[in-house]
Amino acid sequence: MAEFILEQATGDFTQISQNVDEPLIPINHDLLKKYIHYARNNCFPVLTQEAKDKIKEYYLDLRGKYDAEQAIVSILARNLEALIRLSESYAKMALRDIVLIEDVEEIIKLFNRYLRDVGYDESTGKFDIDRIFTGQTRSKINKITKILDRIKNMINENDGNAVELENVIEILEMEEDLDREFIEETIDQAVKEGTLYKPRNKYIKFVGNK
After folding, report:
1. Which residues constitute the domain of residue 190?
2. 36: left (phi over 0), alpha (psi -120 to 50) or beta
3. Which pLDDT tens digit goes with each residue over 93-113?
4. 129 and 147 share one domain
5. CB 3.0-4.6 Å disulfide test: which of 37, 57, 128, 200 passes with 121?
6. How many domains does the chain have?
7. How does DSSP classify residue 195?
8. Are 48 and 109 contained in the same domain?
9. Which whole number is the average pLDDT over 150-165?
């Protein structure tokens, strides 16, 4: 799939020279508007083979990491397309007709920064794509699932009857090595969302259980 998407972004190109050592010079507002207008209407960069290979390598590396960790939402094809479009835009800013590997490397830095700012899981020290798409980290989702599964087992072991909240918390603390505050927050949220309810004071039960 990665090769197919990258192939659609490839076209014929002519190598052009550039002087990367030239100093940056500030430009005024009117000239900047003209610059953007010119770039938008005259520059349509296409990927070099080296740029394609770099994007593919980075994309597959990310997919491999998240697939291996069984993330709910993995790196998707649209993220690959975003890398292509951003790389093209970076080259367009330089008024080039081709996307160089240097353009891709700058976009990879930007994408990594985005993952760090939005998708970094402090508890594991890793990027977590689930946090970007669902608002919660994979480690937190796993803990929530563990809590709800354990509560369901306790209710089943109690012949489907409601179980005492304090007893549930103590068992989860001891057997699952979970923080009490996190357990209470998870249960409170499940009650608010209608997953759990309290048939009587200090007891909980799954909605739908008779």
Report:
1. 138-206
2. alpha
3. 999 999 999 999 999 999 888
4. no
5. 128
6. 2
7. S
8. yes
9. 91
